[in-house]
Amino acid sequence: MTITIHSGLSLTGRADWPEPGDPPEPPGIAGFVVSTFAPLVAAVAQRCLARAAAPPPATAIVIVTGCGDVASARHVAGAIDAGARVGPLMFFQSVPNAVAGHLAARYGLDGPVVCLSPAEPAAALTDGLAEAALLIADGDAGGALVIVAEQDPDHAYAVLAQPGGVGR
Amino acid sequence: MTSPAVAISGYGVCTAFGRGAGDLLDAAWTGRPAFGPVGRFDVAGCRVPVAATAPGLGGGPDDLRAELVAAITTAAAEAGLSAGELAGTPLILAVHGDPALARASDDDREAHRASWYAAGVAAAAGTGAVLRTYTSACVAASTAVAAAAAMISRSEAAIERIVVAAGYLVEPDQFAIFDAGRVFATDGSVRPFSAGRTGLLLGDGVAAVVLESPAALRRRGREPLARLRGWARTGDAYHVCRARPDGAGVSRAIGAALTRGGLRPGDVGYVNAHGSGARLGDRAEANALTDAGVRAPVSSTKSVHGQALEASGLVELVITVESLRHGRFPVNAGYLGRDDDCPLDVVDAPRTGAPQYALSLNSGFGGANTALLVAA
Predict the structure, then answer these.
(1) ipTM of predicted assembly, 2 dp
(2) Closest-CA residue in chain A for B243?
(3) What is residue B101's DSSP assignment?
(4) Could B240 and A98 be called an inter-chain contact, meaning their C-beta atoms sit closer than 8 Å?
(5) What is the pLDDT of residue A123?
C-alpha cells in the first residue's frame, strides 16, 4: 500500500477511472439511470476502497465536481423544453449526495456527506483534501473518501484521507 | 470537542415574502404560509402545481445572482462593514449549481461550473475570494455555515470573518424532478410532524449571513445578533435518499453540536426542525429528537416558506436568530393534530418565550445531517 502525506493527512488507495483495461463505461448501479455520473463515482470509490487502508469510524464522503451530473441535468432540461414527462427515477439522482448515500450505505461510511465545486479543475483534489482536513480537524470526521469526478469525457479519481503523517 | 463560539453580525434574506425579514418573520410567528399556484413557469401536467414563490421574480440565473448580491449587501450593511472590509471578507456559497448549466453547449459548459457562478456572485457583491462552493443539496447551506464557523474558530486558519450565502429560486427543472418523484404535498399544504401530512413543497430562499470571531467584532465596536455556539455534520450510511428511520444520524449531530457548545439537551429551548412534511422523514427526525433527549418546543418553518433546497438552512438560521432575539416561537403551520409517530411539543399556534439556545436541523439526500446550535 502506498501512503502519501498531504497537509498532515495520510492518503491511501489512490484510484482512477479509467485505468488501462477498463471498459468504455463504468458498470451501472441499480436505481441510477440515463447518466454515467453515479456509476463513475461508484466505480472509482470501489477501486479506491479496495486498495486503501480500512476507513476509520465517521469517514466522510467528499465529492468534488465542477459541473456534477451534467447528463442527468441535460436529460431533464431536454424533456421539459420538449414538453415531455420527466421519469420518476430522476428524483433520486438529482444531486451528487445521492451517489454519496449509495456509497455510505454500501461501505458503512457514517461521517459527513459533502459535495463541492472546485475553484479550478486543476485544484479539485487540493480543494477536496482541504475540506477533508477541515472536517477531520473540526472533529466531525475520522477520515474522508475524497472523490473527484467530471463527465464528457468521464474521468474520476479517489483517495482515502486519514489523520496522521506516518510515511512508509 | 468544544469550540469557541462564532458571532453572527448581520444577515440579508429573500423568500416568497419578498426581500427582507419583516414579512417573513411575521408569517413565521403567526403561521401564515406563502404557498400558491405556480405562475413563474408552465406547470401544465404537474400533479401538484404549488410552491412558495416571490412575486415579480422570474427565477432564472440572473434573478438568483441579483438576490444573492442583494442579500450579501444587506448582511454587510447590518454588520457595519465598509466596502473595503467586505472586499477583505471571503465568501462561502451554497447553491445547486449555475442554473444555466443544463442548457449550455459543450463548448460553454466549463464556464457554467458552480464555483464560477459563485465567483461571479462574489465579484458582483464586492466580497473577497470564494473559499468554498457547496452543492450538497438540502444541507448545503448549513454545511457552509458549519465550515465557516470551523474556519473562524480555528486560530490556525487565520480567518476572522466570512460571508456565507445561499440561494434557490423555484425553477422548472427541480420542480419537474420533485413532481415526478411524487414527493409534493397533494393537499397543497406542508404539515410537518402532523397527522395527515402528505409531503413537501418548494419555496424561494436566498440568504446571506456574516460570521466572525467575537474578538474581531469587538474590535469593530459592535455586538452580535446571536452566536453560533455549536455545529455538527453526520451521515446516516443508510440509503440514497431516505432518512435512517431511527434518526440515529440526526441524533448524533444534535449530540455533537451540544458537546461542541458545552451544553446539555435540556438547555435547548427551541428546535427549528428540518421538518419537510414527508411522512417518513418527519418520523425519523422525531425519533432523533427523542433519542437525543431534546424536549424543547419544535417547529419547521418550511411550513411557511417552503423547502428552499440548498438555501433552506440559511433562511431557517435567520428565522431562528430573530426568534431568539424577540422571544417568539415560529409556528409549525398546517398542523392538523398529533401524529403518534411524532410525539413532540409542536408549536401549532403563536407562542412567546425566552429560550436562550436553539437548534436548527437540516437533513438531505445521501443521509446527510447537520445541526447548528444558536445562542441568544
Answers:
(1) 0.97
(2) A101
(3) G
(4) yes
(5) 93
The answer to whether the Cα torsion of B243, B245, B247, B249 is positive or negative is negative
Please enumerate in sequence order all residues whose Cβ is within 8 A of that of A81, keeping only pairs 6 or more positions apart, or say none: B103
Tell me the domains of chain B and their CATH numbers. Answer: 6-375 (3.40.47.10)
The Cα of B157 is separated from the nearest Cα of chain A by a number of Å equal to 10
How many CB atoms sit inside 10 A of residue B182's CB?
12
B3 confidence band (pLDDT: 50, 70, 90): confident
Which residues from chain A sit within 8 angstroms of residue B313, using beta carbons? none
Q: Which residues of B touch A134 (CB under 8 A)?
A: 147, 150-151
The answer as to CATH 3.10.50.40 being correct for domain A4-163 is no
Yes or no, beta carbons of B235 and A60 under 8 Å apart: yes
Q: Which of B85, B78, B89, B73 is nearest to B9 (CA)?
A: B78
pTM above 0.95, yes or no: yes
Interatomic CA distance for residues B59 and A51, integer angstroms:
45
**A8/B contact by beta carbon, under 8 A:** no
Using the Cα atoms of residue A104, residue A105, residue A108 and residue A111 in order, give the sign of their dihedral.
Answer: positive
Q: Contact at 8 Å (CB) between B247 and B285?
A: yes
Query: Could you read off the pLDDT of B85-124 as tens digits, one per residue?
Result: 999 999 999 999 999 999 999 999 989 999 999 999 999 9
**How far does B234 lie from chain A, in Å, by closest CA?**
4
A123 close contact with B: CB closer than 8 A: no
The domain segmentation of chain A, as residue ranges, is: 4-163
User: pLDDT tens across B255-287, in order?
Assistant: 999 999 999 999 999 999 999 999 999 999 999
Residue of A nearest to B370 (CA): A112
Whole-number pLDDT of residue B200: 98
